[in-house]
Every structure is written in structure tokens, then in C-alpha cells.
Write a structure and sequence with these properties.
single chain; alpha+beta; CBS-domain; two-stranded antiparallel ribbon; 6 helices; 6 strands; 17% strand; binds adenosine monophosphate; isomerase
């Protein structure tokens, strides 16, 4: 399965981005309200300059304390996130996420952000694919 099929099945919700100068406290509010675990950081809404994960916030809180909530997201984000394209396979994306130990991957086309996939999206798509393969194989074995 390709990333473009995963994006299609998610619907065309667009990607929630925040500007580098946004305070971490505001980013945390957006994460909570939208019930998501990561935000793409972008000045123009098109270039993925960084990614801020709930894990980045939790780690900073543990190491530096509550003052980190007043920092701007560009001080805490991971710069130059690993991205994929619509043509990448779900297996390739899953491997990169597993090897890199992250759960979010911006999808870019010609340097522009066109979507985001999470490890949850990819696992869900793979499970659906495996269920379809299983029922096709069962059909072949049973002869219908
Ligand atoms: P996550 O598991 O995606 O919530 O994030 C775990 C860590 O990896 C955090 O430090 C994130 O900033 C970072 N991270 C998340 N997504 C990516 C990505 N696509 N490329 C590089 N780092 C990432």
C-alpha cells in the first residue's frame, strides 16, 4: 500500500501546523484540543521546518521544569524531520519510523507539505491489507 492511499482513507483534513515562534504552552493546548501527538512546525504552512511531539514537551518538562512551557516551539522541536512522499510504500514508512523511533512523518511533494501519517495510520492500513489478503487466500483455498 502507498502513502497516498493512507492519506485518502484518512480524508482530506489537511495538516495542522504551527509557526516557529508559537509558545510551547499554546502548542500543548492545540495537541490536547485536537487529540493529536505531534505538530509540524512551519513558517509558511508549506515547508516542514520541524516537528514538535508531545514527547518533546514531556522530556523538557522532566529535564528543565515548567518554565519550558514559555519557550517558543523552535527551541524545542526536532529540526529537518524525516519526511516521505505519496509514492512511498507503507512498509518503507513503517521501517523508517521503527528505526528512527518516531511516530509521525510529514508527507511532502516538491518540498511542500501535503499530509502527515502516523504509525497508527500505517499499522491500521497494514492490518486492513492483511485481512483482505487473508480472505482472498481463504477464498482460493475453499474454491470460491
Ligand atoms: P514521536 O514518537 O513521533 O511522538 O516523536 C519522538 C521524537 O522524534 C520527538 O523528539 C520528535 O520531535 C521526533 N520526531 C517525530 N517525528 C519525526 C520525524 N518525522 N523525523 C524526525 N524526528 C521526528
Amino acid at each position: 500500500m502507498l502513502v497516498q492511499q493512507i492519506l485518502k482513507s484518512k480524508g482530506n483534513d489537511g495538516v495542522i501546523t504551527i509557526k516557529p515562534g508559537t509558545r510551547v504552552s499554546e502548542a500543548a493546548q492545540i495537541l490536547a484540543e485536537r487529540r493529536i501527538g505531534g505538530l509540524v512546525v512551519s513558517s509558511d504552512g508549506e515547508t516542514a521546518e520541524g516537528i514538535l511531539s508531545e514527547r518533546d514537551i514531556v522530556r523538557s518538562l522532566a529535564v528543565r521544569g515548567a518554565n519550558c512551557m514559555q519557550e517558543t516551539v523552535d527551541e524545542m522541536m526536532t529540526r529537518n524531520p524525516v519526511c516521505c512522499t505519496r509514492q512511498d510504500s507503507s512498509d518503507a514508512v513503517l521501517t523508517r519510523m521503527t528505526d528512527g523511533r518516531f511516530r509521525h512523518m510529514p508527507v511532502v511533494e516538491d518540498g511542500k507539505l501535503v499530509g502527515i501519517v502516523t504509525i497508527g495510520d500505517v499499522v491500521k492500513a497494514r492490518l486492513q491489507e492483511l485481512a483482505m489478503e487473508k480472505s482472498a487466500l481463504e477464498g482460493m483455498i475453499m474454491g470460491h
